[in-house]
Amino acid sequence: xxxxxxxxxxxxxxxxxxxxxxxxxxxxxxxxxxxxxxxxxxxxxxxxxxxxxxxxxxxxxxxxxxxxxxxxxxxxxxxxxxxxxxxxxxxxxxxxxxxxxxxxxxxxxxxxxxxxxxxxxxxxxxxxxxxxxxxxxxxxxxxxxxxxxxxxxxxxxxxxxxxxxxxxxxxxxxxxxxxxxxxxxxxxxxxxxxxxxxxxxxxxxxxxxxxxxxxxxxxxxxxxxxxxxxxxxxxxxxxxxxxxxxxxxxxxxxxxxxxxxxxxxxxxxxxxxxxxxxxxxxxxxxxxxxxxxxxxxxxxxxxxxxxxxxxxxxxxxxxxxxxxxxxxxxxxxxxxxxxxxxxxxxxxxxxx
Amino acid sequence: xxxxxxxxxxxxxxxxxxxxxxxxxxxxxxxxxxxxxxxxxxxxxxxxxxxxxxxxxxxxxxxxxxxxxxxxxxxxxxxxxxxxxxxxxxxxxxxxxxxxxxxxxxxxxxxxxxxxxxxxxxxxxxxxxxxxxxxxxxxxxxxxxxxxxxxxxxxxxxxxxxxxxxxxxxxxxxxxxxxxxxxxxxxxxxxxxxxxxxxxxxxxxxxxxxxxxxxxxxxxxxxxxxxxxxxxxxxxxxxxxxxxxxxxxxxxxxxxxxxxxxxxxxxxxxxxxxxxxxxxxxxxxxxxxxxxxxxxxxxxxxxxxxxxxxxxxxxxxxxxxxxxxxxxxxxxxxxxxxxxxxxxxxxxxxxx
Lengths: 352, 352
What we know:
The structure is a homodimer of 352-residue chains. Helices cover 34% and strands 25% of the residues of chain A. Chain A has 352 residues and is an alpha+beta fold. At the A-B interface, helix 3, strand 2, strand 3, strand 4 and strand 5 of A face helix 3, strand 2, strand 3, strand 4 and strand 5 of B.
């Protein structure tokens, strides 16, 4: 896709590796006084703030496994790679502060392609006010690999683990589900149409929200701040990367609880509902197993319900139960069926 | 190599990704009270110590670019991948504390191969007392990629940058140089001999030190402690990953100094000298450009010389000059030739 956009193709070898890094990273700004030293030494140096802990998370994105450059523009890929990591920081109820970004790219990628990728990373870093403090740029024998590590901080008492949910806590979700997965289905379909008839002009307007959620997801930076302003300390939290059912089961397992999830409460965008009908897919299945939504799922003490009631960003979708009761979906027909983890991406698993 | 060692070949798909991670990481121990939460949540959580700063560094190792599995056993590769990162932490004069480890591997690698790789990572983590606090394990379409991020800490006044050297400071090196590069040459030669005659039994004893430096390098964890006990605060420091000349030039550039390096002072192991003769290589060129030695190079105030004099771990190899004087090698014949950066690995460049 990027190759069509620009006819310039400067091989990395022409610029030289040292200059390449200066070139790619020269627009990065430092936003935080916790960053004492960013790019340019053996390691970055960070200054902790009083009584704050650090959180650290890392993700590896591999071409052909996590992304397909035939419909994912490189700039969007750079942006998304940052979001995936920031989402994990926010899921600890922490504020994201720093990133390291490592890239391995084959000689298929000219300097202009890496510029596009870094433009997306820069847009994400500036938009979310995080400092790119280091990384590694290297060649690969095939394809593109992006490895990002994100750091954030928060006072110890704010940091929220997967393990703190208790029986009767309410299960709360930000935003809506299923759109990113459906966006991928739409893009896959258009790719096949394009392969058959390259002159076809698809009308993607009815899928605009779905495609944006797939190609330019946003991490919920606002949520830790919102919860703080509402004076709500979540008891457990996780981000939705693999699909709602899988993430709920993580909370239940770590917190040693069960849960009841109410099908009718699961928030869906109208485009999700319309596209599920068109594709003859069950919207609940998509919400439960779709993945890549990067919304946050958390539990709160039932006494905190009045503080979040009516907030348009937050939906109560169920409640935690005793572990012995198991984890269930309560359907619209009021039947109770066991929740099963069936993530969107069975090939990848983060350790944190 | 690992495929010959063990006939068992369990595909990753058979174990399942969730169980794979539990399986691979179950032996990791937590050594530090700064690690509040390791593997198992959206992010690891770290507790800073009073008045300590954190350092963060990351490296990406790609099969076919940074390593060749035909002579690098996977266990050694895991060990070395950790050393490369720890070396950067020690080069800040800091103590290494935590690691994240991300792996992408194609289906060419069965569970037993990943076990070998993790066994090397575990040996390094235990030997150097660092906590593996997170990571990511994913499939790749071809080959093996290892991305490691290392964290460490030290009081702010101990942390040593590349930029602090002053005119007349002494240039000091730990250990000796050139062995890792020559080890690689020996292994490359044996690989070619093996391809011609698989029954050849090479005698590698004369190269044992060289091969060990290539296949099982050790990072200089001892040096920050040694300097502390000698009450020496280095003014600038860097680790030798790309070759002495390139690293000296980094120090000069960041510190805005020149330097004089004395050829006769460069420490070489007897095996390095003998093998250079055999291969008809100039030992000074190998020391200057060889790379992968993971020794530390630092500068100290000349007044501190009595504190390090005679220490068998440390060699004064030159001194810093005014930037206007440039950076030179003073040869045994007492001629002065400009230092040129010519690293061993022109294909990779770290940002920190």
